[in-house]
Each structure stands twice: as C-alpha cells, then as structure tokens.
Amino acid sequence: MDKFLVRGGRPLHGKIEISGAKNSALPCLAATLLSEETVTLHNVPYVKDLITQRRLLEDLGATVLTPELRTHKVNARGVQVFEAPYELVKTMRASVLALGPLLARFGQAKVSLPGGCAIGTRPIDLHLRAFEQLGAVVSLESGDVVARAPKGRLTGAEVEFEKVTVTGTENVMMAASLADGRTTIRNAACEPEIDDLAELLNKMGARIRGAGTTEITIDGVETLGGAEHTIIPDRIETGTFLVAAAITGGEIEVKGCGPEHLGAVIAKLREAGVEIDELNQSTLLVRRSSAGLKACDVVTEPHPLFPTDMQAQYMALMTQAEGTSTIVETIFENRFMHASELVRLGADIQIHGNTAVVTGPSRLMGAKIQASDLRASASLVLAALCAEGETLIDRVYHIDRGYETIVRKLRSLGADIERITESPA
Ligand code: EPZ
After folding, report:
1. Which residues pair with 274 in a beta bridge?
2. 393/383 Cα distance (integer angstroms)
3. Which of 230, 249, 276 is the last residue of a domain?
4. CA atoms of 424 and 85, how far apart (whole Å)
5. Whole domain around residue 277: which residue ranges?
6. Which of 196, 201, 200 is closest to 218 using CA atoms?
C-alpha cells in the first residue's frame, strides 16, 4: 500500500492547472451507453475512478479509445452485457450510474447493490424508486439490483426526490432521455456536474431543460447520437488547492478552474481570511491574508451552498485559524474520520454528533497517520504540508481515486512530498 512522506512547513508558491471533474466524467462516461454512435469526451481526469469506469464500459462490451491520455472516444454499439458485477461496484459506487443508461437503452440492467463506504451507508433507494416510477420493475436478487422495463421502454413520469441526490438525479436524467413522453424531476440536485451531463446529453440529441435548477424536464426521444464534449474543471480539486495556499501561507495561481462553480467555497474562505483574486474567468490567485486566518463556522449543504466534499479540507484549514469554529456535516452520517488523524498531528477538534468544534491555531507536528476516504486523505495532506517535521500518510490509494498526479502538482509548488511504494513482498 502506497504512503506519502511529507516534510511540512514550506509555503507553496507557483501555478497549477486544474484537471477535469471526476464527478462529471463518471456520469458522462456512463451516458455513452445510451448511444450506438461514438461519443468523444475531452479533459477526462487520469484518476483511478475513471480507469475503473472505463473498465466497466469495456466489460459491458463498449469500445473505449484514448487517442490522448485525457480523451476518451467511446462507442457502445457492441454492448451485449447488461450487468455491473460486484467486483467492480465494490471498488467504485459510481458504477450504479450504469443502471439508468442500460435500463433506458436495453430495457434491462443488473448492478450489484453498492455496499456502504467509509463516509456512510449511501443507499440507492431513491434511484430505484424513481426507476419504478418510470415503469421499471426493480428487484433485489442475491445482492444485485435487477431492473427491467416490461414494455421494453420506460415511460416518462413525475419524479420528486425526498432528498437531494446527485447521482440519483443523473441516473434518472439519463434513463428519462430515452423514455416515452415527458419526465419531470423535482428537488433535483443542482451541482455543476448535473448541468455538464445535461449539456452532453443534449448534444447527443436529448431534450433536457432546467438542469442546474431544482426542477428538470426531460422529453424522451427515440435514439441518441454521438457527440463531442469537454468535461468541466474539478471544483473540489480547485477548492483543495485554494486551501493549500492558505494553510501553508504561500501564494498559488490556480489555472483552468471554474470560479462560478465555487461561489460558497470562495465566500467562506474569504470570510476566514483567505485572499482570492479572480484574474480572469478561469484563473484564481490565492494567498493567506496578512491579518491571518479567522475561525468561521460552516454547514455543508447541497449546491450552491458549501459542498460536503470540501468539509474535510476546510477542517484542516480551521486548525490554523484564530478562534473556535463549528463544522456541521448534514449530507453524510460519518464524514469526520479525518478529525482523529488531524488530532494525532496536534489539532484541537471535538466531535459532537454531526458537529465538529475546531479550536485554533494549533501547532501541528508530523506523525504517522492514515487516510480513510478520498476527501479525508486530501485533508491529511493539507495538514501535513503545514505540520512541522515529517508526516507519513498511509492508505493513499484513497487520494489516487480523485486527484490527478497530486504529488507532481504539489512538488511543482515547492512541497516536500514523495510517494513511497512498498514492494509486494
Ligand atoms: C455524489 O455522491 C458525489 N459522487 C459525492 O462525491 C458527493 O459527496 C455527493 O454526491 C454529495 O454531493 C459522485 O458524484 C460520483 P447523494 P452521491 O446521492 O450521488 C442519501 C467525492 O468525494 N441518499 O447526493 O452518492 C445519501 O446517503 C464523492 O467525490 C439516500 O438516502 O451522493 C447521502 O446521505 C464522495 N438514498 C445523501 O442522500 C439514495 O438513493 C446525498 O447523497 C441516494 C442518496
């Protein structure tokens, strides 16, 4: 299992390019299953989850060509398998995004029910209920979700999610694209990745309106064609590097990002004493203000409010802020596992249910710590960059799922970080 060895205390300076959004590339790759024509996706991030998603498409019978590392040309004409096996789904929950497209195009789909993960039980009941409203018959058979469209095609319906679900909204949008008639999704997720997926689907010939708002209308069509699309920048990677500049006391120019997707994060960081200048529509210049960091409370909420995927990184920053801040996690039931590892570095964090109380600034000292999930591992790297001495972070395979070449990018900014790969023996 790889580890990161970090020698902290060095302010980061320089420029980095943001990669494509993992959480947009995953549904967009799934959407290629809806068509017999070639769909070309640019700016696909080179991260573990996308390698897994590509393997899933190929296991189903699609062909995936990568003329360049971050360009995927997918043709799903040859798909003859309609099943996502447990071996794949257990490594990446986003495999459930194959359900909607397979059901819509082939009238059948079988996907292993994803287990929970470190941050929560993460059920998909809302996805399945929505498919039933679209006319599917859904059953659980030996741990697999088996879905069929008795009439061969789904039928448009009124779907109202009782909770905002990002991949649930994406799954239904894809399924409804080939259904008979109109589907309306109410209480839809509004994340930028939803809008990006809808843009791709409409390029393929779908008729989707309202993506990015809480009410989305989809008028089903007979077939979907090919398209070419560029994935939006990763807003969570962007937010992570904004925190990296602030927590190390350096200055970073973050290029190729989408500031319009990060309104709540930029506002909260500015409130906490981070200076963020928008040099142009895709470049941010960020540094800690000379007045230092100030403790500011935050609550995670669905977009456009503060994203849960930035909660762990923000907690690391608050360990260096003057005063006491409360961080309330409202999306997932177990997303504070980074807190105990930050405490091992010397942070002062108390957990009370879904609220973390952080008192700073704390002097962080290097130690051996362990990553538990994707965004927790980013939080630990940020804290290690700020800690005095050496920090050894174990289980960094988590970070490889969603951050492209994170060691190379950090080293280009002057970080003293190296990956230690243990021999299989
Ligand atoms: C997406 O997960 C993201 N993943 C997550 O990013 C992100 O944290 C999450 O949305 C929230 O923004 C991808 O897009 C691939 P949800 P998703 O369905 O869709 C409950 C990362 O770090 N729920 O919006 O799985 C669920 O348990 C990852 O990049 C149900 O109860 O999240 C959670 O409490 C982590 N039933 C809440 O809703 C359902 O059927 C929001 O989940 C579906 C969800």
Report:
1. 288
2. 11
3. 230
4. 26
5. 3-19+233-420
6. 201
Q: What is the pLDDT of residue 187?
A: 98
To which H or E segment does residue 419 belong? strand 416-420
Beta-strand ranges (E) seen in 212-273 are 215-219, 227-230, 251-255
**Kind of pairing, strands 137-141 and 38-42?**
unpaired
Q: How far is CA 295 from the centre of its chain?
A: 26
Beta bridge partners of 218: 183, 208
Mean pLDDT estimate for the chain: 96
- Render the burial of 113-138: b for 16+ CB within 10 Å, e for the rest: bbeebebeebebebbbebbebbbbeb
Distance 331 CA to ligand 1 centre (A): 8
Amino acid at 3: K
Residue nearest to atom 31 of ligand 1 (CA): 123
Q: How confident is the model at residue 425 (pLDDT cuts 50, 70, 90)?
A: low
- In this structure, is residue 425 part of a structural domain? no
Per-residue pLDDT tens over the stretch 211-263: 999 999 999 999 999 999 999 999 999 999 999 999 999 999 999 999 999 99
pTM of the model: 0.98
Alpha carbon separation from 99 to 83, 90, 170, 294, 331 (Å, rounded): 9, 15, 11, 45, 23
Task: List, by residue number, the catalytic residues.
Answer: 117
Cα 367-372-377 angle, rounded to 5 deg: 65
Per-residue pLDDT of 153-167, as tens digits, reads 999 999 999 999 999
User: In angstroms, what is the span from residue 93 Cα to ligand 1's centroid?
Assistant: 10
Q: 152: how many CB neighbours lie within 10 A of its CB?
A: 9
Residue nearest to atom 20 of ligand 1 (CA): 122
Report residue 149 as tokens. 């469209």
CA distance 320 to 243: 11
Please identify, among 199, 230, 261, the residue that sits at the C-terminal boundary of a domain: 230
Q: Is 372 helix (H, G, I), strand (E, B) or coil?
A: coil
CATH at residue 130: 3.65.10.10
Contact (Cβ atoms closer than 8 angstroms) between residue 246 and residue 252 = no
Exposed / middle / buried, residue 263 (Cβ in 10 Å: 0-12, 13-18, 19+): middle
302 CA: nearest ligand 1 atom: 12
